Amino acid sequence: MSDQSAPPEVVYDPTDPMNRREQMFPRLSLEMVQRIAAYGEEESVPGGTVLFQHGQRGVDFFLVLEGLIEIFSLDLHGKDNVFTMHGPRQFSGEMNLLSDRGVLASGRVAVDSRLVRVHADAFRRMVASEADISEIIMRAFILRRVGLIRMGHGVVLVGPGHGADTLRIERFLVRNGYPHRLIDTEVDPAAGGFIETFRLRDDQLPVVICAEHCFLQNPGTAELADALGLTEVIDPQRVYDVAVVGAGPAGLAAAVYAASEGLCTIVVEGLAPGGQAGTSSKIENYLGFPTGISGQALSGRAQAQALKFGARMAVSRHADGLDCSGQPYRLHLDDGQTLAARAVIVACGARYRKLDVPGYARFEGAGIHYAATAMEGQLCANEEVVVVGGGNSAGQAAVFLSRIASHVHVLVRSSGLAATMSDYLVQRIAQSSTITLHSRSEVVALDGDTRLRRVSWRHRDTGEVITRAVGNMFVMIGAEPNTDWLQGCLALDDHGFVLTGRCAQGNLLESPYATTLPGIYAVGDVRAGSVKRVASGVGEGSVVIQAVHHFLHPEGG
């Protein structure tokens, strides 16, 4: 007989930061405390003093010698919610201390305390110089950010869970690691209270609400980023050593190596770090990760590395043009800002290709997706889904979704997958009872109301048309280069990819990543002839910095 009174089994989750509290809130050795003190100044602070506030930029780092710092946020009613405290030999902060973004929580001294205050610039020097202390701080900051996301501290997003704009906003928050909670008005019983409290109409949704009197009705990406303090304020008079356009694997690798080698570096990214690789549910053939790693986790770690070495991140700003008429080069951003750089690395990747099917645009974001992450996966529980494409991204999506959806239909125009997909993915698809491969097939019709409800596809040889009740279709059929902003500056091939390695006369250049203009380089998917793989993008991004050094300091060899 079973013991009816036995408590339920507790399953250990290694990804839960609360299971790593000693790393999340470490207590430093006395020797480390002394070294940190050399970068700052000791202060005696009365209890109740506010040290920093939510949304404040350029916040200082605080180490407790005696006393207590309490970290708190405000709820939607303006009341304090203290969610952690730092005691002697513990420190404040999370990932935004590495940048000039607004911090995600407030901090105050709970009792009369002695603290070491390390100003922002000195803190960055300390992180770059003190390797063992940096390792402890970086691990704690990353875990704290994950904890904030798990606890839902941040903003509240209210809207229909399947709505295109709700998904657009949530995707931006998720990709940028910004803590939030979704109130799905389609299914969440708590939604009624929010709608009544804020007197919302259906046509006003989605809205973003935060405790600091922030109320945004269906904000655009740039507006949302500005309101949440995610954007960088760019000094138009400052000249950077290198500007990296694009924060995919190639761009992030270039930023890490450039910043770590002392170059003044800024990264311009239109949506979020990671590029297309950041949308992959799991990358299993990337060197050094035998159990695989999600694209978002990989890009998050790379971003943290770049910030650690001092790179600046201008997220939610697209490059809109390039003034290449003289040195320094000047990048024009889509919000009207400009920035100057002596060298430019073009790593802006490519945008997703779309299907030529009637009504396609109507369902983009409302059933048609270009990424298969946990966010999109939750929309597909126990439903049939369609994945269109035969590359690795499509294979990874199909395998991931097969664990969530009732069935996955993979559609390819060719006769099979072997020529375009890694063998380990081909084998998993072939062995899965919940994935069906439809070769020589193409989508011919889409149907639905406010969102996608049905998908029809036709076999190209037999003419047979199959229609299924499908609410989510994942389109992964390759991409087109994001090079419109480069027109008139660089030589492009017939498909719009950047030509590298040879000058206009056809002679070899000093670097395989050099373009037809000195000091401008192209790496990753945007480069003509590149291998469209994460590892190759990372390799190109790291190697190109040698050429940048030679350009900036030709006398050094």
UniProtKB/TrEMBL annotation:
Keywords linked to the UniProt accession: Flavoprotein, Oxidoreductase
Compartments, record wording: Cytoplasm
SMART domains: cNMP (SM00100)
Residue ranges annotated for the Cyclic nucleotide-binding domain, each copy included: 24-144
Pfam families cross-referenced by the UniProt entry: cNMP_binding, Pyr_redox_2
Origin superkingdom: Bacteria
Cellular-component GO terms for this entry: cytoplasm
CDD domains for this protein: CAP_ED
Gene Ontology molecular function, alphabetical: oxidoreductase activity
Record has Transcription as a keyword: no
Main localization, broad class: cytoplasm
Name the UniProt record assigns to this protein: FAD-binding protein
Protein species of origin: Dyella solisilvae
